[in-house]
Every structure is written in C-alpha cells, then in structure tokens.
Amino acid sequence: SNPQFQAAVPILRRIEDAGFEAYFVGGCVRDALLGLPIHDVDIATSAYPAEVKGIFRRTVDTGIQHGTVTVLDHGAGYEVTTFRTESGYQDFRRPDSVQFVRSLKEDQLRRDFTVNALAARHDGTVIDNFDGLTDLHNHVLRAVGRPDDRFGEDALRMMRAVRFQSQLGFALEPATAQGISDNAPLLQHIAVERIASEFTRLLLGIDRRAGLQTLIDTDLYRYCPQLADARAALNHLAALPDTQLQDPAVAWTLMVVLVGAPVNRFLRAWKQSNDLIATVSAAAAIWPLLGDTIPDHWALYTAGRTGLRIALEAYVHVHPDFNSTPVQAAYDALAIHDKGELALTGSDLIQAGMQPGRAMGQALRRAEEAVVAGSVPNTKNALLAYVRV
Ligand code: ATP
Ligand code: MG
C-alpha cells in the first residue's frame, strides 16, 4: 500500500523471476508496520552480488564486499544486499568476515533486534522468525539471540538500543538491558563518529527520557566521550520537559550547558562538525545572559541570528515560561547584524589618509562596536568623525 514499497515491488519480482528469493528487510518493514514514514527501502536476496548484477541493466557496486549492489530503476536507487552471516568480531566492532548464504533465516539471525529482523514479501506477507511481530505490537526492543553475545560481537548495538528506545518509544526487554550493563565498557572500541550519530538520534527521539535513563542505569554513558563524570547532568537532561527536540544544535547546546564543559573541547571530542561547533559555541555563550534582563547589544550581535535562535529554543526548553519575544525584538532592532553592513570600510580609512595595519583594524572594531551599541549612526561620515581620521 505504501508508495515507496510499491515502486520497489518490480525489483523484487525481477529477482524472483530469475529464480531467487527477495524481501523487504530492516527498518522499512518495522516502520511501515508501525505506521511510521519510511526513509529508504532495503532489499535482501538469496542472489549473490554477481547474480544481482546479471539480472539488472544498471547497477552500482556500493558495498560489494558486504554484498550490497544498488539497482537503478526509473531514477531511483534500491540497495539490494545478499543474505549473509557475519563472524569473527575480534575487535568488538566489525565482523572479520561476511559469508554470503542462501537462507533468509540466517540473515535475520545476524540482525540486532527482533523488530529489525522482520522481512516482508512483495505481497506484504511478513516472515517473522524471532517473534518480532509480538515485540512490535508490545513496543519492546529485544536482542535477537543472547544479548551478551550480540553486544560482545558489536558494541555499537548498545548505542543503537538506546537510540531505538528513544526513536521508537519502545521499552527495553530486561535481559537486553542487562546485556548492556554487562558489556558497556566495550563501547570504548567503537569509533566516536558512530557513537555520536546514535547519541544525536537518541536526543532527537520521541522518548529521549527513556533512552537517557537506560544510558545512565546501564553505565553506558561512562564510555561516551566527555561523559564519564556527567551522571548528574544526564539526570538533569532526562528530567527536562519531554517535548521532542527537532534540531541537533539545540540538543547539543542543552548537553554542553548542562554538563558545563568548555564547548570546543567537548564537541571536538565528540567529532562534531565545525558548523555545529560554531553554532553551539555562540548559543552557549549567550545562554548565561538570558533570564530576567535582555542581553546587551554586543552579546546579541556576537551570538548572531542562528546562535541566538538555537540558544532561545534550548532555553525555552529548560524554562518553558520564558518569553523570548523581547530578546528576539532586541536582536532584530540592532543597527547592523553583520560586519559587512558597517558603513565604514578599510578603503574608506585609506582614502582618509590612514595606513593599513593594526591601528586601522582597531578603528574598524571601534566603529563596529559603536554602531552595534547604537551610539553612532551607521553612516560613513559619522563613523569617520567618530574614529577621528
Ligand atoms: P533507521 O533507518 O531508522 O536508522 P534501520 O533499522 O533501518 O533504522 P539501519 O542502520 O539503516 O537501521 O540498518 C538497517 C538494518 O540492518 C537494521 O534494521 C538491522 O536489521 C541491521 N543492522 C544495522 N546495523 C546493525 C548492527 N550493528 N548489528 C546488527 N544488525 C544491524
Ligand atoms: Mg535504515
């Protein structure tokens, strides 16, 4: 019934017509059964990659060593992955080898949670080898097989567990939670980028509180960057009003403000982008000035439009009664919002007889501060007079 599945049905049929099995698998099946929007459709097949490439005219080897071939069809791309098992996991993260297999059940066995191990035929029939449907209906997240083994194989699954708990609003089955408690230190072997990506998704989920609570109760947080001693801050975060967060910058602003860590060091340790670090730094810098009084002009100006918006969103989240309108109005009323809007430039100063150099930089800075403060009009003549050239 879902248009995204409908568009992919001919792909499954072509594979079947060639004598192989093909199924929708993973998050798309789970989300469709939950009535949630689906992002991308994943297909699993008994055909080996070379066989998949033989069936379709246009394919791309997106992850051929893991068995993934992207099939191009009517401008869309579909990831078709050969059934596989994984073995090894000597380093608690990636399998030492993947083995292509012909059986769906073996492929489902390697998946992390029962609700992620569902498969569906092109007619919508669900193949459920691990009681994933029962867990789906009960909103329970349960490891496939023995939790201890599964988290020992791949420690990222522990972060995926708390992420899905928040994203789906599911409860964590007790033995699965126990498995996280028992294996939490293994998270140290996982790349920070991957931990961060799951953590951000946890923070943006519908049940952030539950995901954070598991992170705290299992001690998993102790193996996340910069959080070893942040139990109190995480408890505080978990106790905030549980309205969903939409923006990673807002989520990370709340994190750094509650943890009280230097923003740059904290977010570098989490391997966040320069863009996010700049925005969160600006937001965190103006945060302490929010409250009963309006921040001074220069603080508003240096926060910038984005930094201020993120700070206000985060602040309102912690203080739901805070009225951000006057602060926003004060920002909007600033004479300039960017250095580029200043009516005085370096070449103006050179024309007026000044030598390029340190003094000129200082003069421009004084002009900028005076215009932002509202004490000098933003015109060339007024500013030339003000800097006394
Ligand atoms: P979403 O797309 O919302 O992130 P998803 O379930 O599709 O959810 P993906 O990371 O896209 O998550 O992975 C697709 C599927 O691959 C999962 O549903 C799961 O069956 C399997 N999978 C992914 N990562 C792992 C892992 N680390 N261990 C075991 N199985 C995994
Ligand atoms: Mg997915």
Description:
The protein has 389 residues and is of the alpha+beta class. It has 19 helices and eleven strands. A seven-stranded mixed sheet has the order 3-4-5-2-1-8-9. A hairpin with a 5-residue loop joins strand 8 (119-120) and strand 9. The mean pLDDT is 96. Magnesium ion is lined by residues 26-27, 40. Magnesium ion (MG) binds next to loops.
Q: Helix content range of the residues, please?
A: 40-55%
Structural category is alpha+beta
How are helices and strands ordered from N to C? HEHEHEEEEEHEEHEHHEHHHHHHHHHHHH
CATH-level-4 superfamily name of the largest domain: Beta Polymerase, domain 2
Q: What's the total count of β strands?
A: 11
Strand fraction band? 5-15%
How many separate helices?
A: 19
Defining key terms:
4 domains, 389 residues, seven-stranded mixed sheet, 11 strands, PolA_pol_head_dom, NT_sf, binds magnesium ion, Beta Polymerase, domain 2, Hydrophobic Seed Protein, single chain, two-stranded antiparallel sheet, metal-binding, alpha+beta
Sequence-ordered SSE layout with sheet pairings:
Elements (H helix, E strand, L loop, with lengths): L2 H15 L4 E4 L1 H7 L8 E4 L3 H7 L3 E5 L4 E6 L2 E7 L1 E4 L9 E4 L3 H6 L9 E2 L5 E2 L4 H7 L1 E2 L5 H7 L2 H14 L1 E2 L1 H10 L8 H12 L4 H10 L13 H9 L8 H12 L3 H7 L4 H13 L10 H22 L6 H8 L13 H6 L6 H16 L6 H7 L3
Parallel strand pairs: 2-5, 10-11
Antiparallel strand pairs: 1-2, 1-8, 3-4, 4-5, 6-7, 8-9
The structure holds adenosine-5'-triphosphate (ATP) and magnesium ion.
Magnesium ion (MG) binds next to loops.
